[in-house]
Amino acid sequence: MDFSLLSDLNKDRAARRAAILVTDMVDGQQRLVRKSDDFSGDPLAEELARRFRSGKSGMTTAESGEVFLNVSLPAPRLVIIGAVHISQALVPMAEIAGLDVTVIDPRTAFATEDRFPGSTLKADWPEEALKDAPLDAFTAVAAVTHDPKIDDYPLMEALKTGCFYVGALGSRKTHGKRLERFTEAGLAPELFDRIDAPIGLDIGAASPEEIAVAVLGAIIKALRTAPGAAA
């Protein structure tokens, strides 16, 4: 591989940017295509888009012959806002499903190592916790504290940055008030439909464990079906 291409690919990986290394199997020439690029005029545009959605590397055929597409996608992340009972059930399930999980809650009575052993726990306000690991299109956000002072900021940031899943706990009445606050904060109303509220699949979940199953199901559905997300 050309050193400059390898360096660029490593930079993209470090910055959690999706990219595909295209290798011509006939002459060995290589090029890098980023998901953020406008590759609509590329001869492989349709195949590149499909590979970005699937995340699967493999051979395909171009006019010049066979090419290999080496797909590099950031690992999907789940950021849970709120170290509550639902989160305790959701963390191990999400990790089994292959998600990198972070739990954020400034309330140190809830955010303890005893309640979240082995998980990435940040006992801080979301505004501070997300500075070092900002949200992106390959991140899901689930806000479950019921406290606007904690939930609102990460939810608005998730909408602005295009997170592939944005979910919030609360009744429809609670959600209505939430949208009023978001409107007053200047958030574009057309983004509101992206919020999954009440959070999770509609499976009649009642207990924290059942709600966690519903939330994870909704996240996986968004991960695997949303155009341009981490699918």
UniProtKB/TrEMBL annotation:
Pfam families: XdhC_C. It is an enzyme of class 1 (oxidoreductase). Keywords: Oxidoreductase. Its EC number is 1.17.1.4. Residues 78-218 form the XdhC Rossmann domain. GO terms for molecular function: xanthine dehydrogenase activity. InterPro entries: MoCofactor_Util/Proc, XdhC_Rossmann_dom. This is Putative xanthine dehydrogenase subunit A. It comes from Roseibium aggregatum. The gene is pucA_2.
